[in-house]
Amino acid sequence: MTELEPVPWERVGDAKPPERAGMTVDLRRCVGCHACSIACKVEHDVPLGDFRMRVRYLEDASRGTIAFLPLLCMHCADAPCLDACPTSAIVRLDDGRVIVDEDRCCGNKACVSACPYGAIFVHPDRGVAEKCDFCTHRTEVGLDPACVSACPTDALRFGPAEGDAAAFREDEATAPIVRYVGLRPGLDEQANAGVRLDPRDRDIVYE
Amino acid sequence: MIGPTMPTLPDAPFGWPVVAYLCLSAVAGVSALFGAAMGHSYEPQAIANARRGLWLALLSSVAGAACLASDLEQPRRFWLVLTEANPTSWISWGARILTLFGLLATFALALQRGRSSGRPGAFHAFVLQLLILVSVALVAYPPFVLQQAQGRPMWQSAWLPPLLVLSGLHLGSSVFGMFAAAPKGRSLTGDPRARAFEVHLVLLGGAALYGFLADVAGAAGAREFARGHDPEVLLAFAVLGLAVPLLFAFTGGGRAVATLRGLAVLAGAVALRAWVVFQGQDTSLSPLLQSLKERF
After folding, report:
1. Residues of A with Cβ-Cβ distance to B292 under 8 angstroms
2. Predicted confidence (pLDDT) per residue in B40-60, tens digit
3. Residue A157: strand pairing partners
4. HSE on the CB side for A79, CA within 13 Å?
5. pTM for the structure as a whole
6. Rounded to an integer, what distance in angstroms lies between the CA atom of residue B284 and that of residue B172?
7. How far apart, in whole angstroms, are the C-alpha atoms of residue A59 and residue B158?
8. A55/B6 CB distance under 8 A
9. How far is CA B224 from the centre of its chain?
10. What residues pair up with A25 in beta bridges, in sequence order?
11. Do B84 and A89 count as a contact with CB atoms less than 8 A apart?
12. Beta carbons of B143 and B168 less than 8 angstroms apart
């Protein structure tokens, strides 16, 4: 008889969340499958048309190139949304993550305008701000966020960012703790180095 | 090319209630400014105008608060902004200013009731002076709320606060001018009802001077801060804030023309604020989108 796979919370064991939150997005590994977006939507019941996490496609039809860019709340150390919120509903936890306290949110949308990354939206039914919280309910019991668990290529890694990872916008002074690997000008050619999508090319190269 | 299928940014969060509030707060602040200043006078004509100004201020501030409350979808949330105020947020300061303004305007109006001549008492004068300070704050703070939105580069323009404040003074004084009783004597333009409008002309001159000086100075820092959107801000202000009101600036006298001029200023100021709010939220101006294009 086949042994049943244990449910995730049984598999956690003694695992503890990292002391410092953060995420590293390895663009060399992302294949643009949207698994992270879908897992996030399912996990948080995100309404149609809104996203806590989304994957941008950067396409150039003339060159037949494509690159993928997962975008989420950057949990900035100097978060503009936190300063703009009139009711202090956006708070930073000890581990560095920035979350929305929905009970205190007045729905005035100042945070939506304040965020340079477009990472916050207002729930159309409840009228409160929503954003990525690194799946607090999962990470506090030692699980990875839903997007990280769902990523088939390990392009997303939860925990303090690695040394060579860079901020998405180098000119941005908000000090994000979500960092990117493989981010550079000419992203479509240099990122996703392991996958080349050219319908005319029979030799699709995998690294 | 940026991928066509998924939205890059959430929908623009601020709509017409915010535009209406920006207009109403300017009307309330400037009307109270005139009303409180005239309240110090002993002339019956000025006292009557002070009462009208305070009424206009009170009604405008209540209507403005209603617009904000409707934007929050649940009016009780306005109370949350007051009780759970975050000191780093300009919106929380704005809510306190608006509430204090409403209370002071009501109080000043109650003190003004039944008064037809004579100078106000010491306490009454103190309330009026306090109201003047809060009125200035009410007119001046909204542009700083917009500037706190770092995701909207156009609102970061250093031009926006002075231009919106000047436009607010135009707007408020023109609306007050329409409601005020005719002052005695003749104005510079020959229209006894045009005195309030002459204030607009002085302010328009101030705006032009500000633009000239800033242009001469180069305003390099401001331009860099605004990330290239200064010309749009200035053009909109020139057309909507200056040209539309000036079309009716020298069109003779009479109550009808004075009202027409006031409405022209009103239309220009509303259009300017609508442009600032909606154009400022255009997602094609997003720094995120610009960065994506640079990356590509």
Report:
1. 56, 58, 69
2. 877 777 788 888 889 999 999
3. A24
4. 29
5. 0.77
6. 33
7. 35
8. yes
9. 26
10. A156, A180
11. yes
12. no
